[in-house]
Amino acid sequence: MKEYQTITEVSGPLVYVETDEPIGYDEIVEIETPNGDVKRGQVLESSDGFVAIQVFEGTEGVGKDASVRFLGETLKMPVTEDLLGRVLDGSGNPIDGGPDIVPDDRVDIVGEAINPHAREYPEEFIQTGVSGIDGMNTLVRGQKLPIFSGSGLPHSDLALQIARQASVPEEEAETDDDDEGSEFAVVFGAMGITAEEANEFMDDFERTGALERSVVFMNLADDPAVERTVTPRMALTTAEYLAFEKDYHVLVILTDMTNYCEALRQIGAAREEVPGRRGYPGYMYTDLAQLYERAGRIEGKEGSVTQIPILTMPGDDDTHPIPDLTGYITEGQIMMNRDLNSQGVTPPVNVLPSLSRLMDDGIGEGLTRADHGDVSDQLYAAYAEGEELRDLVNIVGREALSERDNRYLDFADRFEAEFIDQGFKTNRDIEETLDLGWELLSMFPKTELNRVDEDLIEDHYVEDVADEATAD
Question: Is there a contact between 119 and 296 (Cβ–Cβ < 8 Å)?
Fold first, then answer.
């Protein structure tokens, strides 16, 4: 381990050092200031006689008189099953006052790509307890399904609700050949959040007991931006260890990916890189793909890694580079809606632009219920028609519409008020969600249910509701 005192420049989070030997990319560095403070960093760029280092703790106090030591290894995450129930900072250091972590292993945070031939297709249902997701945009094990939100919307509350409620359905757990294989864990990675949000997260985790099966990584808004680029990799490395070494089904929630991308832009500006679209680095697509593609299942392994990244769209613009690139890489999106939020609908999930590309493989008989697909399709079609009629009402008034059209308008109102709006404390299982869907669909005559199999209509149609709707 060679030590240098050849710092030539300090620029934002970056330190530039002259060297007389080759230095490896991503190598970990210790920088010691004259007053004895030691900061950690990582090699960002290496060439003959010159190295650029990004400093995790910020460069305050680092001058040209500081000493630089190259440790000869990349950044590693100490992993153990005992991490469950612990709270760590964005660099993986415990901040909960608990005992020191004694790791079983130290794993490179960059991870290894899953061999496509060894990937198992995601097709087992994960129950979040949120009807707008479970019923209409189902999440399956091994999927990456982001939540697209906006500034001021309650995506943090939705993240907490999913972390608290996510589970494997009881029937599936009972039929699992390996009891350990049905164990469920949550890895929660928060990036660039405020201290108030952090306190809210921790209060909820501790109050509900969800912390016992969770590993929480906290990077606050006043922590160095460089640390933000490490946090999701620490979280995913922990998730991969629990999933593929300890056979857990791990749900990874990452919030807020917009803060992560802003950190990439800040570092790119400090390096004076040629910016891409809207000032973000041209390699942001590749960087995001390295994170999102770490979700999945591996043949022969009991565990799985499922991702729910959460991002706030600047200006609610879904064509912004961050949601745009995320949409290319992931398998759908859950869209939160500002109008629904202003009406008091919680969680304000807009099912029409939302999508789960793997939903069809994770629902049906033996997974959720035989009528799930048909109910979802019919609810979607009816709500879409009701939304279109709302625009027409603004022009011609409700009195000008037919009885059939008015029924679709009533359905749209009830769908939002009863199916989507359930509050952040209510945990609905898939049976409750589908039964509620049938109750709403029974507002229509059976002849209107053209997307549902006739046998299913006979089994689930609620005649009392139909009679009330006719009487109205």
Answer: yes
